[in-house]
Write a structure and sequence with these properties.
This protein is α/β, with parallel strands linked by helices. The protein has helices at 11-14, 22-32, 47-57, 78-86, 94-103, 108-116, 118-121, 157-167, 189-195, 197-200, 224-237, 250-261, 275-281, 299-306, 310-315, 321-335, 382-402; strands spanning 3-9, 36-43, 63-67, 90-92, 123-125, 129-131, 140-145, 148-153, 179-185, 205-212, 215-222, 265-269, 290-295, 339-345, 360-367, 370-377. The strands form four sheets. Strands 2-1-3-8-7-6 form a six-stranded mixed beta sheet, with helices on both faces.
């Protein structure tokens, strides 16, 4: 088994000002190829920290990928640290940087900026090779020592991805699955584990169980034939609750099921403010089955756009089964859809009462068999309530279409 270590450099990552995304992206791809990811590290913009990272892992892993610290500002120290570790100076790779300049030559403003940061972004250690940047301005670098290949790339995610695909195309080539995922709805993780004991205990299989209301995702890693066996057995044991093969999320499953049945879906949202529609439209090609989402945050919008009755809002309130049902039915009419889901609730931190505390959310699901409502009390802060509400709404919509 090949091994890799992934490292990200940046004080902004350690302070929480920015989320680290590059190591997350690569870890999934390495696992899918059967690689061992030995460690993921985040360190500061400090030369001693970076040389320490190199000393720590060179000779102990097949591949070390470093992200960040190659920009033009004072805190970008990666190239200097690598040169220090290798015991050499820096040199300008003018040929490679001229290729970058030629890419933006027809845009005067971008050309002027790119030319102005040529030094230091064209500089690489004398004992390293250049990694060309097809998407940004800073060159990357690579070298080998003591059996370890080291690749250092800029931290901007779209640049990092473009460069790593260029350098390691085999990692992204399609082949037999060494990793598979099954998402199961409405079932506690211990119940799931109890129904597939032979999968959980298989010595040649690594199983991760990841709960995230209202779903539990099982991730299987191992040799392709064992992974295929585990996935097939799990799906057979949870028929009707396991999302379809190929779906990476509940939103994905909704679109797959809608295409399969030849139907269209819509949403009506209050406390989630368009997040359900956002989850569906985040997936390319969703327009073939998703018609739209009405964000009706205030009562007037619920009444005027979705046709929720004034007496419903007066007698039962916006956070009620009656309102949720009328919102879902209104979305069907507004968007000419076959199925619709609605959300209306109290995400917090204020607005709750004794009878309707923060976290109270009503969901309406309308389809060919009529309309129904279901309520959940969702724990957590505002962001968590909204996130859970989106997943639950999509799971109810999927079950309605699937039934």
């Amino acid at each position: 088994m090949n091994s890799a270590v992934l490292a990200a450099i940046g004080d902004e990552l350690l302070s929480g000002a920015r989320l680290e995304r590059n190591a997350h992206f690569m870890a999934g791809n390495f696992h899918a190829k059967g690689w061992e990811v030995k460690r993921i590290e985040i360190i500061s913009d400090d030369e001693d920290e970076i040389t320490g990272l190199l000393s720590r892992w060179i000779g102990k892993t097949d591949l070390l990928i470093i992200s960040g610290g190659l920009g033009p500002t004072h805190d970008d120290r990666t190239r200097h640290a690598i040169a220090k570790y290798l015991g050499c100076g820096l040199k300008a790779d003018d040929e490679s940087y001229d290729r970058i300049l030629s890419r933006v030559k027809d845009d005067p403003r971008r050309y002027a900026y790119t030319a102005s940061v040529r030094d230091p972004q064209a500089m690489i250690p004398e004992m390293a090779q250049t990694v060309f940047n097809p998407a940004g301005f800073a060159l990357g670098m690579k070298f080998e020592r003591n059996g370890t290949k080291v690749i250092a790339l800029p931290g901007v995610p779209f640049e990092y991805e473009a460069m790593i695909r260029q350098e390691l195309p085999g990692i992204f080539a399609h082949d037999e699955k060494r990793v598979a995922s099954v998402i199961i709805l409405d079932t506690p993780e211990m119940t799931i584990a109890g129904k597939i004991p032979e999968v959980i205990s298989h010595s040649a299989l690594h199983v991760s169980i990841l709960p995230a209301f209202p779903q539990v995702e099982l991730i299987f890693r191992g040799e392709p034939e064992i992974v295929a066996w585990a996935e097939g057995l799990t799906r057979s044991r949870f028929e009707g609750l396991a999302l379809p093969e190929g779906s990476r999320s509940i939103a994905d499953a909704v679109l797959i099921e809608a295409r399969k049945k030849g139907v269209h879906v819509a949403c009506a949202e209050s406390c989630t403010g368009g997040l359900v529609g956002g989850a569906l439209t985040e997936i390319a090609g969703s327009s073939d089955v998703f018609n739209g989402s009405a964000v009706t945050y205030c009562n007037d919008a619920k009444h005027e756009i979705l046709g929720v009755k004034a007496e419903t809002l007066r007698d039962f309130g916006a956070v009620s089964s009656e309102c949720a049902c009328e919102m879902a039915e209104g979305a069907l009419k507004v968007y000419g859809a076959d199925y619709a889901v609605s959300i209306t609730g109290i995400a917090g931190p204020d607005g709750g009462s004794e009878s309707k505390p923060v976290g109270t959310v009503w969901f309406g699901v309308a389809g060919r068999e009529g309309v129904r409502a279901v309520m959940r009390r969702l724990p957590g802060k505002r962001e968590e309530v909204r996130t859970r509400a989106v997943r639950f709404a999509l799971s109810e919509l999927w079950k309605e279409i699937h039934s």
